[in-house]
Amino acid sequence: MTVRAREALARADVVLCEDTRTTRRLLAALAIEAKLQALHEHNEDAAIPGVLARLRAGGRVALVSDAGTPLMSDPGFRLARAAIAEGAAVSAVPGANAAVMAVTVSGLPPLPCLMLGFPPPRAAARRAAFARLRAAERAGLSATLVWHEAPHRLAETLRGMAEVFGDRPAAVARELTKRFEEVRRGGLVELAAHYAANDARGEVTVVVGPAPEEAADATGLDEALRNALRTQSVRDAAALVAEATGLPRKLVYARALELGGS
Questions:
Q1: Apex CA 129: angle with CA 124 and CA 133, to 5°?
Q2: How far apart are alpha carbons 207 and 209 in whole angstroms?
Q3: What is the topology classification, in CATH, of domain 98-208?
Q4: Alpha helix (H) ranges present in 166-233?
Q5: β-strand 169-174 against 113-115: which pairing, if any?
Q6: pLDDT per position as a tens digit, 224-258
Q7: How far apart are CA 99 and CA 184, in angstroms?
Q8: CA 188, CA 172: separation in Å to the nearest integer?
Q9: Which of 49, 143, 191, 214 could bond to 112 as cystine, CB 3.0-4.6 Å?
């Protein structure tokens, strides 16, 4: 917590926060007394008019999130956009940022990197999102990829990443800047197996290395199919790889049958 952040909270007429209980503990530790108001994904739109009215009257409003940086996979974007449109002065106080810190300690190329927020919670939508990203890589995208993920979905998500992206170098960073901070580095297959056997806890950030240079088409197709066939049926593996590569589904299915049979 920087000196500037403490001053901003102490001078605020109201502090907007995801959970007033969490922020109340923070302010108590800093010996700051402030009025708290909940602002989260379910009430942000309804709260905006009142906040804008306070700003018009010359009030000072601070926005915090429970962990990390407001707006970055947390509430606040709609409010910030509305305040900017209103002509209000909008500033940010730098602080801990899990995505940037995870890239810093991952050992993977820091630039360029692509922050993608949380993957879709449902398996089918998550697989489709990964497939679209893989198609973009085949079209030329080359960047280190960064996601947040809920701990109870971590193993399943890592397994899905391995199926679509292959066994790339990756890192899982948990509880960054907190007491039980952990950074585990390895291939996606290894990390998926570890968290399938060991439950993750806390705030999780996943960093995946950029796409390698594409091998010959046949070799790349076989590798993608073998990765998918580890956990999918022949039909599902073929559908997944066809979507990711843009290759004809019949061609991919025929090759999947050959690999599945061997």
A1: 145
A2: 7
A3: 3.30.950
A4: 188-197, 217-229
A5: unpaired
A6: 888 888 888 888 888 888 877 767 788 788 888 88
A7: 15
A8: 10
A9: 143
171 in Cβ contact with 102 (< 8 Å)? yes
- φ/ψ of 173, rounded to 5, equals -115, 125
Here the tokens at position 160 are 């899905």
In this structure, what are the phi and psi dihedrals at residue 68, rounded to the nearest 5 degrees? 80, -145
Q: Does the structure show a pLDDT above 80 at 51?
A: yes
pTM for this prediction: 0.77
166-178 burial, b at 16+ Cβ within 10 Å, e below that, comes to bbbbbbbbbbbee
Contact 23, 62 (CB under 8 A): no
Indicate the domain borders of the chain: 3-86, 98-208, 217-261
**For position 87, what pLDDT does the model report?**
95
Length of the chain: 262
d(CA 134, CA 145) in angstroms, rounded, equals 11
Tokens read off for 141: 């995208």
What gap in Å lies between CA 46 and CA 39, rounded to an integer? 9
Q: Which fold has domain 3-86?
A: Cobalt-precorrin-4 Transmethylase; domain 1 (3.40.1010)
Can you tell me the distance from the alpha carbon of 199 to that of 151, in angstroms, rounded to the nearest whole number? 8
Give the list of residues 6+ apart from residue 91 with CB closer than 8 angstroms, or none.
Answer: none
DSSP state of 243: H
Q: Are 170 and 71 in contact (CB under 8 A)?
A: no
All residues at 6 or more sequence positions from 130 whose CB lies less than 8 Å from its CB, including other chains: 119, 160, 161, 164, 165, 244
How many other CB atoms are found less than 10 A from the CB of residue 46? 9
